[in-house]
Amino acid sequence: MSLGASGFLFFRGVFLRRVLLFLVLFLVFAFPATAEIRVEERDCVPVTINGGRYRTEDAGSQWELASVEAVAYEVYHLQSILSVLKQKNWPVYVVQKRCFFSSGEIAGCAVPGAAFVFASKANAGVLWVVEKRDETGWWPLSEEEAKEILRRLGKPATAEAVRAVRWEDRFRRWETRRVKAARTALASPYLSAYVAAHEVGHLVRFGFLSESNLREYLRLRGLENMKRKGHFDDPEEIFAEDFRWLFGSERANQVGYRPSCPEPGDKEKAWFHRKLNTSS
Question: What pTM, to 2 d.p., does this model score?
């Protein structure tokens, strides 16, 4: 028995609907929806901060504005290395006004569930930044390679001999290497990235960890009885700065570590990973 045109169209329609249903189910289960930190540009502060004890004023020029692009990239960077952050639908507001508390101008702040990056006079300045870049040329041997050559030649590896071998023309190589280079740059992209990473650090503390977790972290750092020398020695500020220093991008970490204590290291990073994975 042969199918007519209408029957063929009917079965084709059923087939296509089944294919479409399969694709929808595949997308739902293969790529589950996740909440992510979102970056929003605002002309004013969208919620009350500091109990309403603040004031804002227009930026003096466009150079004082925070960089939305730098904030968005920093958030993307943090979520790419800490997937647990995708559980939170936090807004990071880039407010294109300057903000002042009683203590003076602030570049950013955070409250549970939201962070803010403000315009600031510092954004219009310049920073001395050190960045990595590729350079091609004739490169000397490493010290270890020079010592190995001296060992094979049966000569003592004195500092002077190592230096001479390293820079001897016949041993140098033509290659591309990753090097650090210093330059001055407009401050806004770097300060905006720094503030974003720092404030997300506050959000992590508020959103994932308790007061007892904070005290545990300070004990790990040996800072539970630390005498405060300034604003950044506050426990909450140390936590946010440590988060920025450990997980922030190269751009965010062009700004030096602010607390008066030593910078965090591997054991602090391991603590963050352990606690955040436990909280996820």
Answer: 0.74
Question: How many Å apart are CA 133 and CA 249, to the nearest integer?
Answer: 15
Paired tokens of 141 = 């041997």
Answer yes or no: are the C-beta atoms of 39 and 94 closer than 8 Å. yes
The pair of structure tokens assigned to 74 is 């920093």
Give CA–CA dist 143/163, Å, rounded. Answer: 8
Residue 189 · residue 70 · CB < 8 Å: yes
- H/E stretch holding 175 reads strand 173-186
Closest CA to 223 of 272, 266, 260: 260
Is residue 44 exposed (0-12), middle (13-18) or buried (19+ Cβ within 10 Å)? Answer: exposed
Which token pair is 272? 């963050």
- Residue 158 sits at φ, ψ, to 5 deg, of -70, 160
CA distance 131 to 227: 34
- What are the structure tokens assigned to 252, written together? 């965010």
Q: What does the pLDDT look like over 61-82, one tens digit per residue?
A: 999 999 999 999 999 999 999 9
Contact 130, 182 (CB under 8 A): yes
- Residue 66 has phi, psi (to 5 degrees) of -70, 150
In percent, how much of the chain has pLDDT > 70? Answer: 87
